[in-house]
Amino acid sequence: MSGKTTSEQVFQGIGVSPGVARGQILVYRIAEEAIPHYDITPEQVSQEIARFEQALITTRQQLHELQQKISSGIGSDASSSILDVHVSITEDPALIEPVITRLEQEKKNVEFIFNEITRKYIHTLQELPDEFLRERAVDVQDVTRRILQNLLGHTHRGLTSVPPGTIVVAYDLAPSDTSSLDREHVAGFATDVGSHTSHTAIMARSMNIPAVVGLHDASQRVHDGQPAILDGYSGTLIVEPSEQTLYIYGQLQVKRHSLEERLAALRDLPAETLDGHRVHLSGNIELLQDIEGLKHVGAEGIGLFRTEYLFLNRRDFPSEEEQYEQYVSAVRAMKPHPVIIRTIDLGGDKFHSDEVTPPEINPFLGFRGIRVCLAHVEMFKTQLRAILRAGAEGNAKLMYPMISGVAEVVQANRIVEEVMADLRRDGVPFAENIDIGAMIEVPSAALTAEMIATEVDFFSIGSNDLVQYTMAVDRVNERVANLAEPAHPAILRLLRNCVEAAHNNNIWIGVCGEVAGQPLYTPLLIGMGVDELSMGTANLPRVKEVIRRMKLEEAQELAAAALHAIHARDVVAMLKALIQRIDPDLLSS
Ligand code: PEP
Ligand code: MG
User: Fold this and answer.
1) Which CATH number fits domain 42-152: 1.10.274.10, 1.10.10.60, 1.10.10.10, 1.10.3720.10?
2) 63 CB under 6 A from ligand 1?
């Protein structure tokens, strides 16, 4: 093979789906179709239109078949709803009508005209500042490529059949590639672009396949057949691993495996410290299929259901019924444990449409979270109805994101009361006494927590945003990521203020940002008085292990010392020393 290297190459990206894959690389490149270009006679126009319509029909059929395959095989709602978006693209007048018009005007073959129109359309989407719309370009590209292939009579080359142990490396993977890939044989996938919110990341997590995104130009620098290790924990792709790396990974694998086995035994044991202090451990979900895994690790509820995922990748709003089905499924699945349903947190880096979340220069400081809901009251009310109704079937709680002060909570609560009055009037069963919580993730809310505490039943700290807004560190900018310090003195002071405000008002306080799932920070959070931690499935057993091996008393001592520390690194050093003593395996694997 040309360009074969003997030395190891390491590519660093972002680990978006945990696990380690070992196998051989398959570079997945999408070949540019050679598009024929010729003139047609006026009589041939109707023939070309018919060809185009047939290609659209065939494409829809293929997508429906794919959807059926998914629902019978993989059972991934995420894949299925993305394919719904794909079907809708095949019906999009913005793509279809100009083709017909230009066919009639220019009298060229339909592939040529279609390719011209879609390329411009995709280019426009790619240039938009809005991340959601840019990601939409991937969907349009994926579907239009399929339509073109059908026009040209080519079969769609997918990843449906690959050799066992394949690590797919690509610039990006289109949703129809990931949803149709050979799950038996694909060991992992790695892409040059992407973020935590990109389709690839969502799909990887829902399929439980190790994945790394944001590898820059890796797909240009590797070759088919090269042996590789893909580490979805650390976000690395190691190509042609040396004997030494293989040995280290082998050891790490054995260690991880025995740690996982040891931690699996904790599943039904309480998250209780050695001196008898009970902590509530729950999970974060984006999609319903995340629930199975959470139950498997013994989560005592859902501490954060990011409902905005139901609103992404579509033009319309999910109806009350559609939302109800989602929420009630979660509530039933977790019964009797609580499910905290967060009202949509659109804006920031998650967008729906220009009407709801218009492009902005500073979206993280703009129209986001509760601000959007308070401005689109009907949309908000539809969601509230669905949540309140789902609450009648189990233990649902309601939570507002991006609260910046008590006035927003009062306003939102008033809308909840109006919705309750409507439901009562209509005789629809709902949760009359639903608990309502505020996310504390904006510094102004953290500083006025004692005012907000009088209006809600619980707090949940959104540490991802609280750190971003307090320290002026954009949470999606990898260049400043090292400045985001959850143990910074400023964050600890805000946290202390929130805990005191909550407990003085007899309400509980949780943390649902990433830090809640980092075992290193568990003693700090518990020592500071946090009552609940909510995190992704993979980390829950580790956090439980820390809780079960420490004393509340020592965590409180550590927290008191942390509040005197000048540097976050000093707090981290104290935490490492504690974890090193109670379970060193947690630091090394
Ligand atoms: C957070 O900000 O910490 C949080 C949990 O919410 P999200 O990550 O969805 O903004
Ligand atoms: Mg947040």
Assistant:
1) 1.10.274.10
2) no
